[in-house]
């Protein structure tokens, strides 16, 4: 976990190669046509979010999605609490996802936020942050479900860091099918000459040039 945490601290993101097996990637993408598993559909161009579509899973989550969310949360909670301390904010993230979601639900954030995004040729996702209420877990993950170069071209995952008193820094993160990228939802601490300061981030997807691109998004706080 140390190398993983070091990557988050240094680069602002960390890769988890091969987190989801190819067969499971296929199954998650195929769930797009199963209406019963979704609670909400969003057509991005109708809201100025870009072009494409995404759908939020309903509870109960598919077993694979629930397991990934639970296990990743357990790995990331120590990082989240350390970041909170470095930013002089309350370290309020319990060890288990179930305990954290209880806090979200008590505050009225009861809607599940894991989702699948679907992009066709010409689609893209504007730079944004996934904020759904007062409770925000500071890290999230995206898993690429399609094979670059075979299923689609273009569609790079983008991360832009807005540094204080400096120009923004952008990263295009290369992903293979089944790889996950973990990154900040809103901000992260960065060590400066006078201690830690806040660095804000936004993420998005560049224009898909051809084919179909599916991704799984794992957000750990629920929505109000």
What do these coordinates show?
- By secondary structure, this protein is of the alpha+beta class.
- It has a single domain (2-219), classed as q2cbj1_9rhob like domain (Jelly Rolls, Sandwich), CATH 2.60.120.
- It has four helices and 15 strands.
- The strands form three sheets. Strands 1-11-7-15-5-4-2 form a seven-stranded antiparallel beta sheet.
- Strand 9 and strand 10 form a beta hairpin.
- The two termini are 32 Å apart.
- The mean pLDDT is 94.
The largest pleated sheet is described as:
7 strands, antiparallel
**Uncertain regions spanning at least 5 consecutive residues:** none
Q: What is the name of the CATH topology?
A: Jelly Rolls
Specify the number of helices.
4
Total number of domains:
1
SSE pattern, N- to C-terminal = HEHEEEHHEEEEEEEEEEE
Tally the beta strands.
15
Strand order of the largest sheet: 1-11-7-15-5-4-2
* Distance linking N and C termini: 32 Å
